[in-house]
Amino acid sequence: MSKVIAITNQKGGVGKTTTTVDLGAALSRENKKVLLVDFDPQGNLTSGLGIDRKRPFTVLNLLQSEVMGMPYDVHEAIVTHETDEVKMDVLPANKLLVSAEAIFNSFDGEKELILKNVLTKVKDDYDYVLIDCPPSLSLLTINALGAANSVLIPMQPAKYSLDGLADLIKLVMMAQNSFNTELEFEGIVYTLDTPNQIEARNIKQDVEDAYGANVRIHETFIPRLKDISSSPSYGVSVFDFAPSSKGAMAYANLAKEVLANA
Ligand code: ADP
Ligand code: MG
């Protein structure tokens, strides 16, 4: 059985893309077959894995063909990222993905389920499909929620982080009540963490008080580390850039928690 996880937070710069890449890499090291979907027009996941953002065939073409009812082969858009340490497939994106909103809106059918219909064609080839969402609660994010089995929320335990969380959780509950009744919370994972700072501790307590009863808060946290931020410049995950670093260890631990929640 494959599991599709949407990695979502409408705040930018909280570690969504990093978590998609490095959690995906960690899962591939556990011998899982992994597909990463770049669903952000910024295309950071695509370029961070050394894939040319100018590639003509991206996830956008698949959405377009799906909406127009034209035949297409998802494999034509997939790129394999293989190194000494990891092997995972990637559905790339670039800035043209902004036009997806108009494509979704032009569709007469269920606008929330277009990505789901695309992924249904390949998801059984994989154990895990991770969708890297844009920093917005747009139709792109809604389509990611429509396609997903669960939602993983990377969150920086810093001031103002709590503000958007309530809206995001409401959107997930709206999805659960309408177009994806099976959708679950994978949980919250703290990223860019500064565990020794009082502010971070206070915010974690606030999150625990507000959501701890309903949403899993992962025990593993991802500290702010140079090895994690440097690896995309080399087009690789942290496991290739610094295999025995604390950053690699943190994502390996997060993967173990995700696997335990199969
Ligand atoms: P998002 O996708 O939510 O916008 P990113 O994953 O792109 O966030 O991360 C934002 C910035 O922070 C990037 O420059 C990234 O390299 C850096 N970053 C992410 N996680 C960490 C971390 N644990 N330690 C240090 N830098 C990080
Ligand atoms: Mg991103």
- Bound molecule types: adenosine-5'-diphosphate, magnesium ion
Overall tally of domains: 1
Secondary structure class reads alpha/beta
Rg: 17 Å
| Low-pLDDT sequence parts | none
Helix fraction, binned, reads 40-55%
Mean pLDDT, all residues: 96
| Distance, first to last CA | 9 Å
What fold name stands as the CATH topology? Rossmann fold
What percent of residues are in strands? 5-15%
> What is the string of SSEs from the N terminus onward?
EHEHHEEHHEHEHEHHHH
Please state the overall shape, judged from the principal axes of the Cα atoms. Answer: globular
Q: How would you name the CATH homologous superfamily?
A: P-loop containing nucleotide triphosphate hydrolases
At CATH level 2, the architecture is 3-Layer(aba) Sandwich
How large is the count of helical segments?
Answer: 11
Structure description:
The chain is of the alpha/beta class. It has one domain (3-252): Rossmann fold (3-Layer(aba) Sandwich), CATH 3.40.50. The chain has 11 helices and 7 strands. A 7-stranded mixed sheet has the order 3-4-2-5-1-6-7, sandwiched between helices. A hairpin with a 4-residue loop joins β3 and β4 (87-91). α1 (16-29) crosses α11 (246-260), α3 (59-68) packs across α5 (114-120) and α5 crosses α6 (139-147). The protein is globular. The protein starts with a strand and ends with a helix. The model has no long low-confidence stretch (mean pLDDT 96). Bound molecules: adenosine-5'-diphosphate and magnesium ion. Residues 16-17, 40, 44, 132 line the site of magnesium ion. The site of adenosine-5'-diphosphate (ADP) has 17 residues, from α1 and α9.
